[in-house]
Amino acid sequence: MNEPAETTENLEVEQPDSWEQLEQIVAAKDSEAARSYLKELPPGEDARIMAQLTETEQQEFIALLNDEDAAHLMESLPELQAGQLLSALPPEKAALIFDEMHSDEQVDLLDQLTEAQSEAIIEQMDPEEAENVRFLAQYDSQSAGGLMITELLSFEESQTVDDVVTELRQNAEEYATYNVQYIYVINAEEQLVGVLRLRDLLMAPPGRRLNKMMIANPTSVPDSTSLQDLQHFFDSHHLFGLPVIDADQKLVGVVRREDVEQAGEEQAGRTFLRFAGIMGGEELRSLPLKIRSARRLSWLSINIVLNIVAASIIAMYEETLETVIALAVFLPIVSDMSGCSGNQSIAVSTRELVLGVIRPRDWFHVFRKELGLGLVNGITLGILLGGVAYLWKGNPYLGLVIGGALGLNTLMAVCLGALIPLILKGFKLDPALASGPILTTLTDMCGFFLVLSFAQALLPWLT
Amino acid sequence: MNEPAETTENLEVEQPDSWEQLEQIVAAKDSEAARSYLKELPPGEDARIMAQLTETEQQEFIALLNDEDAAHLMESLPELQAGQLLSALPPEKAALIFDEMHSDEQVDLLDQLTEAQSEAIIEQMDPEEAENVRFLAQYDSQSAGGLMITELLSFEESQTVDDVVTELRQNAEEYATYNVQYIYVINAEEQLVGVLRLRDLLMAPPGRRLNKMMIANPTSVPDSTSLQDLQHFFDSHHLFGLPVIDADQKLVGVVRREDVEQAGEEQAGRTFLRFAGIMGGEELRSLPLKIRSARRLSWLSINIVLNIVAASIIAMYEETLETVIALAVFLPIVSDMSGCSGNQSIAVSTRELVLGVIRPRDWFHVFRKELGLGLVNGITLGILLGGVAYLWKGNPYLGLVIGGALGLNTLMAVCLGALIPLILKGFKLDPALASGPILTTLTDMCGFFLVLSFAQALLPWLT
């Protein structure tokens, strides 16, 4: 139980690739076969299969499905992939598929499209659904308003248990897709005044009024509540859904635990990508080359400038370097190792920020903790690399220069790496994207400077 | 709505630090104050406040709380932090707190302790709960068995709606913490035969037998199902919980959507940390320095060896380097930029593996996609850096050497970065941890070799 086995993919039990079969179905325009093909796919395979088809094939396949199956397929694909597929469909077809989705999924997918594309689809939608989507689209996608669903059960406080049961029975089919756990009780102004669990209805006499049995003044959140606050809320409360109210206290939706968890997971994925220099959100290889290349280059071109700035330090010490050419071997090692040490600190700070264990104003606490670690790791790594340098050239002063430079630079990198994410976060900038380049530029410059200036000072003993 | 505002933390509305107030409460041993203090903390603040207290203060604070509040607090802390706190408590106290937690949380926390510590706590627990924990602890924490809860409602198929409602009413208090959505129907051998939604009970005549109204042969998963398969399942099914069966088809638990989402989020966090070279799981700064330092050094010491191996290429070309000392300025730039390009590819492949869009055997599809991108980015970056080299020294051949080396090395880094995670995953190794060091060693070596061998070939025109 102790070691999480995260590479559980079992290669042995995999079926032979079935997308050739899919190509035949598409070519034969066989709706029935398309449907049963989709049903028999192991979970998760649909995303992979779709990613391997050309855009035309994807569209032809979608055209073979009924709207409900197409909606189901789109919901199980990564949002970016579903968005690409959607943007290639005629707006009328897209709108029909949309009508089969939950409100939050509609909005998430429209987020992937251009303004014109999403407007074209909304116009073709069922008018009531369209109004709802427009209403939801006004919210920041990472706020309670953007994460909530509007499919909820609300009743006026003067209604009775029997009213609710009758209503549920009459619309059983519609509510079947609602995943109801709570019933919300509102007053005549549509303001939230109470909540009832479904199981409470089971145990109540039919004639009882809702306001006589509801939990009054239930917890609710304003529609502007941030994802992070929602995450903290669900961490510390065993609830499935949280009613969302607008500025007038009106009940506007329900944000569910699962949506908050999923948004958190997606955010962690994007943080990971930004940390490695992928800008503009998710990158899937099904995106056009032009977009992928441009996004990656935009980050690389900033880095190349920073790299040139850092390396210009070396150019200032060309003479020293010419005298002790062995230094050129150690320059990349010192800068790279310090970068690694600093990145570890960045990762821990970024993670602690996400977990809510630290905040920007805790910088001194973080600095103190990191100073000790920087000293221990700096001394250890300095002795290691200094020893190698000494043994290689048989010159203890070379060992001193290299070891001393790496030790000091590690200490600096560890402390800077820990603080940079806090500083960026304090200025409301994105720690994941900018911390790495800022750190490595500083550690490169400082590393080159330390090696070369120490060498210049000890030059007589190095030659 | 388009730009997710992920830095939503609002510095203005924050209260002044309240942990000094907490220190006073702890010093005064004021139980009542401790309780109301905890209640009034904004969501998420508890983790941060606890992280700032010394270990002794944390224990004194926990001692002031009743078991239920203490359990509640521990559940809202990051697992690592809660585990540390727990390991410092006397086993009797820890066991009392444990009895207030859900079964899956108990097991997650025991995972953080040594064998001896967790055995000491289990021995002090309520015997029934202890047996349950021992049963759950046998499972891999990232499988359906490790993620499931055992608090579920199951009834025999011959029972009636009235039996269920009576049972629910009689044990309303116990079930209040269960978050019930489904009722599971089993046969005399405890095998799962059907499922009922709570709302179905609302609409049924009291005397009806469960097997006359249940959904027969419900979807269930074996207890060994992997987290990844569970994620795919919940992606494509609108269910809240999924019954888990053992090898004898017996119903052993329920894995809930929220637990799967949360496990996915935690896994994404750990992947992020491993990617930056933090081994051994979560690192919080509240861990002892010795452990933090040793974990980071274990990864850094592998890296320093790899760095020395790569830099030894430079040592082989000392003469060339002495002749054209300007090359020493560009060596770190070429190796660093290629590392950045390769890391972008690693991140995209790792992410696509997590999303299930690619699998190891799709390597050729990935390679083809990345080849084009490597060419475009290689040529662009080569021209950029080659241009800088040419302008700096006024020597077009220097530009050719540097630009050509960076271009080729970028192409190689992009392709290798895309494939390495697939290869590692194919061999059931961890792509996040090992991809980076393998890539940078290869790109460093290759980058140094390309710059210096090109320079040697063009040496007459470079001096």
UniProtKB/TrEMBL annotation, chains A, B:
It comes from the Bacteria. It is a multi-pass membrane protein. GO terms for molecular function: magnesium ion transmembrane transporter activity; metal ion binding. It is found in: Cell membrane; Membrane. Keywords: CBS domain, Cell membrane, Magnesium, Membrane, Metal-binding, Transmembrane, Transmembrane helix, Transport. InterPro entries: CBS_dom, CBS_dom_sf, Mg_transptr_MgtE_intracell_dom, MgtE_N_sf, MgtE_transporter, SLC41_membr_dom, SLC41_membr_dom_sf. Residues 148-213, 214-271 form the CBS domain. Its main location: membrane. CDD domains: CBS_pair_Mg_transporter. The keyword Transport applies. SUPFAM superfamilies: CBS-domain pair, MgtE membrane domain-like, MgtE N-terminal domain-like. The chain crosses the membrane at residues 297-317, 371-392, 398-424, 436-459. Pfam families: CBS, MgtE, MgtE_N. The keyword Zinc does not apply. GO terms for cellular component: plasma membrane. Belongs to the SLC41A transporter family. Acts as a magnesium transporter. Homodimer. This is Magnesium transporter MgtE. It comes from Gimesia alba.
